[in-house]
Every structure is written in structure tokens, then in C-alpha cells.
């Protein structure tokens, strides 16, 4: 049970950290990759393999943390897809 809780908390941490990525394409890629990886490995029941995958997830979390920091140092203008639509036609 503790393993399940650890895996789910790591999953949530990865998703939260990936949401902080400033670049839309990197953010969407990271979110998609995290979700796909966890879905693909959801049926694993070998504790040694789970322990190994949790180690990989911790490494990836640190990597995303670094990318968030670097991304905020060199931020760019938001893409059109990221901008929130307004109802005022004069506001462009």
C-alpha cells in the first residue's frame, strides 16, 4: 500500500512541476510523456521494478525542476494558443 501511495504522489508531483514549464510545447510534451509512461507501467507488480521506476521518476522530477528554472530565466512571449480569449473586439 505504501508503494502505491509513493507512486501516486510522485505522479502528482511530476504533473504539478510539468505545469510550471513556461514553454507551451515543452509543457504539453512533458505532461503527455508523464501520463503515457504511468499508463504503460500501471500493470507492473514486481517491487524491484517499481523501485527502479520510482528512481527514474525522481531523476525526471529533478530534470523538470531544472528546466523550469532555466525556462523562467529565458522566458519568451506566450504563443497564440496560450493567450486567453477576450470578449472585447477592440482588445488585441
From TrEMBL:
Residues 7-61 form the Complex 1 LYR protein domain. Signal peptide: none annotated. CDD domains: Complex1_LYR_LYRM4 (cd20264). It comes from the Eukaryota. Belongs to the complex I LYR family. This is Complex 1 LYR protein domain-containing protein.
Amino acid at each position: 500500500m505504501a508503494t502505491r501511495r509513493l507512486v501516486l504522489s510522485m505522479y502528482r508531483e511530476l504533473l504539478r512541476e510539468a505545469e510550471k514549464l513556461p514553454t507551451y510545447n515543452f509543457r504539453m510534451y512533458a505532461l503527455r510523456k508523464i501520463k503515457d509512461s504511468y499508463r504503460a507501467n500501471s500493470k507492473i507488480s514486481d517491487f524491484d521494478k517499481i523501485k527502479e521506476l520510482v528512481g527514474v521518476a525522481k531523476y525526471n522530477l529533478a530534470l523538470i525542476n531544472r528546466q523550469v528554472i532555466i525556462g523562467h530565466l529565458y522566458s519568451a512571449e506566450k504563443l497564440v494558443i496560450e493567450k486567453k480569449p477576450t470578449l472585447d473586439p477592440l482588445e488585441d
